[in-house]
Amino acid sequence: MHPVLRRWFHAAAGLLLGTLTALAEFGLVLVAGPWLLATRGRAPRLLAAARRLVEAERRRMATWYGVEAPEHGASGRSGAGLLVYLALRAPVGLTGGAVLLCAAVGGAYLSLPTWLWLWALTDVDHPVTVLYTAASGLFLLFLCVQGVHGVALLDELLARRFLDGGGGRQALRRRIDELAASRAGVVVAVHDERRRIERDLHDGVQQRLVALGMLLGRARRAAASEPARANELLRQAHEESRRALTELREVAWRVYPAALDEGGLPQALEAIAERTAIPVRLSCAVGEPPPPATVQAMAYFVAAEAVTNAVKHSGADRITVQARRRAATLVVEVADDGCGGADPAGGDGSGLLGLTRRVEALDGRLTVTSPPGGPTVVTAELPCA
Predict the structure, then answer these.
(1) What is the pLDDT of residues 247-292, one digit of tens each?
(2) What's the whole-model pTM score?
(3) CA angle 126, 129, 133 (to 5 degrees)
(4) Which of 37, 67, 212, 341 is deepest in the core (most CB within 10 A)?
């Protein structure tokens, strides 16, 4: 389904549910108003019901509109403030229901010629009237399509205005807290990556270079007295130098792959597939223009880390890597058919925690689904704007 149609249907479903909650809100406000006046504001059960309705509205908007209504402001609002919000939201919800009803009527009018032609329910004595009715239905349906978005936007603005006790300052404060947390996370992730590179160099490349030096020294001493042994040692030294070069190249790829500059993300992901012992099924469609270099680099690191984890820990027989553009977001998904049980917090040594921090530094989101027994799916959503 086209993204525009999908967003419209989500908004329409949100309005439909909002109409149902508006009926409950309208009834609560009618009961709560006189009761609060009679009891001088002492109505804990009614206020608890109001808070539950507000929480239901938050979940509805998050699920169907894709927006997060203020949470902290809602908890800090007084009961009277929540009732004011519900009293104002009830007519908005009923308006949304009326818009959807008009859309249904417009669709029925628009389809009238089709029904008459297919089933010939009646003789068409006035075809011009039928066409006029269909055109009116099309016009009404067009207005309702726009009205769905308008009422959904009004619903969202109403929640932000009356549930956020601190207004825009609270949203700004939350944003500052998020940036501070992501910055601290990036510092920790970079530190962990440096330690990882140092460990790879020390335990891998350095040990091979030491072995290479020892082989060359032994070959040099045996050159005069045992030429055959010296040749064998030189052969071993040559093999060791090749292995050291391969490991050094692996470390360099983990720091930054040169293929990103040469052919972009598709070529870099192809390199991951070629260097992986497990069969990798690759699909990459980043669109035009390509995402920024920082986004492509992060997408590569997500794929490389997830594939490495699958090879080391999952026992998988097949890995699937997908990178696709979805509106202004680059979505990277790595799935394997292994044993599952990956720890998103990184407690299994997989490095997913550091990867999560680096993704969040780009205002992205990393999710890991890995039930016991598999499969494991790592998904990163990276904004391209």
Answers:
(1) 776 666 666 677 777 778 888 888 888 888 888 898 888 877 888 8
(2) 0.48
(3) 145
(4) 212
